[in-house]
Fold:
Amino acid sequence: MSDYYAVGKSVPRVDAVDKVTGEAVYTADVNLPGILYAMAKRSPHPHARILRIDTRRAEALPGVKAVITAKDVPDILLGLKLRDVPILARDRVRFAGEKVAAVAAVDEDTALEALGLIDVEYEELPAVTDVKEAMKKGSLLVHENLHTYSGLPAPVKNTNTFLHETFSKGDTALGFAQAELVFEHNFTTQAVHQGYLEPHAAVADIGPDGGVTVWSSDKVPFRVRSLMAEIIGLPITRVRVIPSLVGGDFGGKGMIFDEPLCYYLARKSGRPVKMVMSRQEEFLAGSPRHPSIIRLKAGVTKSGELVAWEGNAIFDSGAYAAYKPQVGLGGTKKLAGTYRIPHVRIDGYYVYTHTVPCGHCRAPGDPQASFAVESFMDMIASKLQMDPFRFRWINALEDGDLSPVGEPWKGINIKETMTAAVKSSGWGKPKPNPHYGIGIACAERPTGTGESSAVVIVNGDGSVNIISGSSDPGTGARTVLCQIVAEVLKVPMERISINLVDTDSAPYDQGAGGGRTTFVAGQSAYRAALEVKKELVASAAKLLKCPGEQAPDLIEVRDGFLFMKSDPDKKISYSQAVKAVGKSQLMAEETFSCNQLDDTCFATHIAEVQVDPERGYVEVKRITAAHDIGFAINPAAAEGQIEGGIVQGVGFAILEEMQRAEGKVANPTLSDYKLCTSLEAPEIVTLLIEGAPGPGPFQAKSIGELPTCPIAPAVANAVFDAIGVRITDLPITGEKIVKALKESGAARPVSAAVRKEG
Structure:
């Protein structure tokens, strides 16, 4: 790393001072002259017909400037891929928390009072809130006209299962016939909220010419622009989105929420409108992680070789599927883990219910799949009386292998992460006490693809600007882009700035998400910096009297200077090079696009826990996390991403659950919904494995989503190691542990193996 100028170093974030001093501007901080405050009226019922909405009392309240219902907005359906959600409920509501009306008033108190004055008459209807019931033939339909919706991968009718995905390779019937032992088991996971600090927020202002300006907490500003332009019926050039800083995302801020309501309230009132969801609204009507029911079946030889595998996953999508960039979840194809298995079949089912709509949450679908697969791997190892590490090792993928569903991957180094994690943890060492447990889990996650453009400018004074449409939802992406450009141009970080600009001024970027930012936005910035460097070198060649065709080999750059390699004292500044071409600045714009990639990242986590069997209390003592990083552009930022993912994973494992009663969220406050805090956070040992090169600048790989995936199964495996009972239903609560101990007498409830005869 000493060979690098700016990358490979843990530098402070470029926005750190603004954030810690409170100078950073978020969407809720936006204030405009005459701005109004908006709130939404929400349904108390999971399923009901709207018979009447009377807004007259609300409209008469002093301070109320606008009230809208479905009749005031277009009768269209929205969605990222599958379009199924209305702007406001029109004839019926499909979950408790769905918006039926909105008000804008001079202050929040007046808006809240006005909500209570809107009279809505409902006819309550039966609701289907159990996903298995929803799948049955003849079940009550959540969407009677599903077959008319755009975005469906295949036509479906008279069903709540709007998508059935299948991934396979080999012949599972043959594989199970060859197996000597067959195991099966079910696993379930709960709905969890992303837990970001900043709730959804939006501001809309309509100019005198009818042009619209939107401020949004959304991490994909160009998507906000296109969706808003489509809803309003304007060209995208008439919609300007000003991205504010995003106070956390974790997958939950990729779809518009209240931006359309702000626009229609602004149009009706003639004043700008701001709307900020309350924390309770976030739980009632956000887009949480999908609950799942997963059944796995494995065929194994007596020596421990996996020969056949089947995975069947049911994901409860809630009332709408609009909040997913793809109709399904990438995690479905992860239901066979990181293992070499010749015969695999995976089925994923996505089902509507009358519950809160689910969307993307850090590594969509992967934590659910990892919990099932890695718990199952330990259960099989236990039955085989084999060390869990050894069982994984003999089945782990190696470089050159195809993925479990037959996809080509490059740079497979899962074994390197396994070795590093075991070496640095307490694996194989004596336990400090009988109820101390240790568990292992592995996972993988591909680097995301997409499109991004960047502009790099070297100014007349030698300073550098980066203009990128890339969003930074708290990941440190803007800092990484600065480091990349600083490395190419050999300019000190303090001489580089990155501008947070609107969609009228920034080049296009597909948006943060999917682990794409360092790769896609990084490559565009890297290439733009290279182009600017070429111009600088060409200009310097003339001043230094260096043959132009030889300049790239003879001229070096460092610290904002260009000099002859053979005579370092013979140099000119960037400022001189810019002025020598008669310009005030040198500028280059580059676009990078990638639609398919065979790169993936691997991780091994080892959890150490202490369990109190009398109370069922689980304390996660330490997590050792080995991550295939390719190259760490900013090691501290990479470690921060891993640590944050681990803390979220601990919450998923033992604390968090959006509890539902008759379809309604029963714990919609942070006092009842238990996020992992510093009190529950374990000691974390982070290991950055820079083995297999990645596709990003300087061979970096993505890191944002993978860390949360192996935690829940590693903790579950450690709990089993500590007290001998297996919890296969998340979260792992004290009540479940105590009950399992009482019922099993600490027996290990692994599904009975079917021993083949002959």
